[in-house]
Design goal:
The structure is a single chain. This protein has a 9-stranded mixed sheet with strand order 4-9-1-2-3-8-7-6-5, with helices on both faces. It contains 3 helices and 9 strands. By secondary structure, the chain is α+β, with helices and mostly antiparallel strands.
Length: about 160
């Protein structure tokens, strides 16, 4: 489960100054910078540009087109006919659901089939329904390999 210390670090961090949490295996999403970082015990091992929800961030309701903020567990990466690879984000948390948050089928995924960078600018604008999208299959596969190997938490801020 998510450690209270990790969540406290996420909430106390300055969104304008991204940094990996000091410990743990983390997929960090920095919404202001539109970047995904793979973090191992405080060290950034990869930085990947991403697109986010077309409605912005701080998801509250299903269908709002927003990317959620917070700390979440990740599901097992799986094949997707639309996006190559899909990594489920366990949103909403039980606490968020009690407070009225709703949504489903959120995750980290690759570009739409047939529309990868550099030919199609999949990370130039925020276009998803709330997911986090990479620009290439190689990028989402790097994230999937990290998730399979380390079972990290995803922190979105």
């Amino acid at each position: 489960m998510l450690a209270a210390v990790t969540l406290a670090l996420l909430l106390a961090a300055d969104p304008a100054r991204p940094a990996c949490p000091a410990s743990g295996m983390v997929v960090a999403i920095f919404t202001l910078q539109r970047q995904l970082w793979l973090c191992r015990d405080g060290v950034e091992t990869a930085r990947i540009p991403v697109a986010l929800g077309r409605g912005g961030s701080d998801k509250y309701r299903k269908g709002d087109g927003r990317t959620p903020l917070g700390a979440y567990a990740l599901g097992e990466p799986r094949p997707s006919s639309r996006y190559g690879t899909f990594i489920p984000i366990r949103y909403p948390t039980e606490d968020q659901a009690r407070r009225g948050h709703s949504g489903e089928s959120l995750g980290i995924h690759g570009p739409p089939r047939g529309q990868a960078e550099p030919d199609y600018p999949t990370t130039a604008v925020d276009w998803t329904l709330g997911c986090i999208a990479t620009g290439t299959d190689a990028d989402v596969e790097a994230v999937a390999a990290f998730v399979r190997r380390y079972g990290p938490t995803v922190l979105i801020r």
